Amino acid sequence: MKNGFSIERRLVGAWYADSPWLLLLAPLSWLFGYLAQKRRARLQRRFQGRCYSVPVVVVGNISVGGSGKTPLVIALVKALAEQGLKAGVVSRGYGGMTTDYPLSVRADTGATESGDEPLLIARETAQFDCPVIVDPDRSRAVEYLLKTYSVDVVLTDDGLQHYRLHRDVEIAVVDAARGLGNQRLLPAGPLREPLQRLNEVDFVVANGVGDTAVDVDMQVKLQPKGFRNLADGREIAPEHWAEGSAVNAVAAIGHPQRFAATLESLGLEVSLHPKDDHQPLEANDLSFDDMKPVIITAKDAVKLVDPAPDNLWVLDIEASLPSQFVDQLLLRLKSFEGPGI
């Protein structure tokens, strides 16, 4: 596999390798932790307890980088729909450049407006009539969603540290494959909040299998659904892949190695070309001299503007939710006591 050499990727690599030079940043981490604690206390005193008309479920994490939040949100929308509950989603819309907030995201919205993750959610949940609202002010996004649409529950994609937003249920997602790095706060480590924060959430969900070094309530797995050719729309089940075992994988996500590992689990020989999280992909990012098939993530696929070459494929995945997790979440939602209840 090839390694990325951006500053972002170097820093992430240092966090998860616990490089000794990070100790130089320890004083900044102490300051960050102190200021974050003060901020949280101030905002929670002001906003927590100001319930909305429906329960709000925050799906987030305490670390920087991808942990599998977005696939979990999509899976939750589907699971709630199966129980007769209509969900709406709000998101920060990282990477989107619109100034027209709140923004209702549709399947044909441009990723440059909404950001890649909200657009992916909108496309994957369109069959459930799930509204997706983008706004850096998630509280405003929830208020707009509830005024404009009729939903039974609001899910937020990320936002665990957005304490201006009242929440009724908190779900923290941990990448089981790489855990929480050196478990230090930013900038000496990947943590946005201390490890003890996981003791306060309703559910700690591990994405995948591995030694997370923390207690988890549930494990979910991202399972490959199939390959989809972006030029002609062909779909191939993983077990029927016959385009060649050696492939190039391009991933602009928080943990590209997880994508490569998924492809390798399907029997492919992977040359990984990692990019920074949310980075738009251009034609030269997807062109290689070896003519091997090029495979990207669904999150990256929604950002493509240039015409897709014939050898470009996307690996579609879905999160598998344990039934007991859904049952316990439903119990939490049924205990909701909103305004006037």
What's this entry about, in short?
The chain is α/β, with parallel strands linked by helices and about 350 residues long. The protein has nine helices and 13 strands. The protein is about 30% helix and about 20% strand.
Q: Could you walk me through the main structural features you see in this protein, from its secondary elements to its overall organization?
A:
The protein has 341 residues and is of the alpha/beta class. The protein folds into 2 domains: 7-32 and 51-220 and 322-334, 3-Layer(aba) Sandwich (Rossmann fold), CATH 3.40.50; 223-320, Rossmann fold (3-Layer(aba) Sandwich), CATH 3.40.50. It is 28% helix and 21% strand. The chain contains 9 helices and 13 strands. The chain has helices at residues 7-17, 26-47, 69-82, 111-114, 116-124, 138-148, 256-265, 298-301, 323-334, and strands at 56-60, 87-91, 103-105, 132-134, 153-157, 169-175, 203-207, 218-229, 235-236, 246-251, 269-274, 294-297, 312-320. Strands 1, 2, 3, 4, 5, 6, 7, 8, 9, 10, 11, 12 and 13 form a 13-stranded mixed beta sheet that branches. A hairpin with a 5-residue loop joins strand 8 (218-229) and strand 9 (235-236). It starts with 6 loop residues before the first helix and ends in a 7-residue tail after the last helix.
